[in-house]
Amino acid sequence: MPYGQPYGRPPQQQTPHGPGPQTPYPPHPQQPPPAQPGLGPGYGPGYGYTPHPPALRPGIIPLRPLALGDLLDGTIKLIRSNPKAVLGLSAVAALLAAIPLAVGQAFMLDSVGGALADPESAAAAEQELSSMYGVIGQYGPTLISYVVQFVVVTLLTGVLTRILGRAVFGGNLTAGEAWGLVKGRMPALFGVVGLMAVIMLVPLLVFALLMFAIAASASADSVGMVIGLTLLFIVAYFAYYLFFRTRFAFASSVVVLEGRGPLDAMRRSWHLVTGDFWRVLGILLLTSLLVGLVAGLLTVPFTLAGTMFGMFGAGALSTTIVSAVLIAIGGTLGAMLTYPFEAGVAGLLYADRRMRSEAFDLVLQTAAIEQQRQGWVHASADELWHPSNSARP
């Protein structure tokens, strides 16, 4: 950068003086900035003051500790810089998870609509729904949807995290390239998600067994006790869920970017969150709220239309199909936005915590300067995420 040229301003065209290297010079000396109002002369920035240079930003984020705006802006830039891979994969994953659920809801709405249209058949419809086949037809698609969602969202998280890891340096990966880099980490990634599912399900199973024991006693006070314990459990479980969801928020990113195993990745995530728990929790909650509102605006119209078709067009196969299609479209649109945005914020928040606790921004800046000198982003940039490259372990 030329001497005397302030940071952040493009160099002006100057006329070189004398032989030798053509070094531009300013046409006249810089004037000192005016003193700040109310401070009098001699206060404020002195003569020749230049602001700090902006942080390097070769990719979707500046290479410094990130504010909330940087996290949201970086996630949007991740989607915009590679929409085919990010949104395309998210749409496929969302559609696969939404189809079984939409089919189950459409057939249930058809049964409800038939009962409303013919009240005399309501008892028969209720008996059918309570039968074994009715229970399977009602809850089977939901269970299938959750299983499919477990698989495809885990795969999607790994691929999106690898794309994000390269996008920090300004590089792009296709879906095929990202899959080739991340497929070896899938067993560990499924291990993390499976352990998280166990942690979240254990309290629910314990509570279900407790309620079953209370109901079996058939005492007069059992109803009031069940209601009171249920309300208390909801509050306690919500706090339990938020605590462990926050503590292990970075485990998937650690598995993909650092190459650790499931248990080691969960310990690593716990360590990174320590010291900044409430900030991480607040950002994750705010992200879920924002994404939920936007996804709801996209989902609700299709869900309402599908519900109307299913209930008021009961008995016709065509209306059931239309209802299932509308509900599936609504679920796909909502999840297509939710999946990449939540994965992007979690991945960038992981990078932010490493910058704050391990001075990782110095490592990223050094690598970015070298890549700018070479003029391209080398695949070896992925290796920089390994913890051995931290400036302060």
From TrEMBL:
UniProt keyword terms in alphabetical order: Membrane, Transmembrane, Transmembrane helix
Pfam family, one: DUF7847
Region (Disordered), start-end ranges: 1-48
Compositionally biased tracts (Low complexity): 1-17
Stretches that traverse the bilayer: 86-108, 143-165, 186-216, 222-243, 277-302, 308-329
Positions of the DUF7847 domain: 191-330
Compositional bias (Pro residues): 18-36
InterPro entries xref list: DUF7847
Name this protein carries in UniProt: DUF7847 domain-containing protein
Species for this entry: Nonomuraea antimicrobica
Organism lineage string: Bacteria, Bacillati, Actinomycetota, Actinomycetes, Streptosporangiales
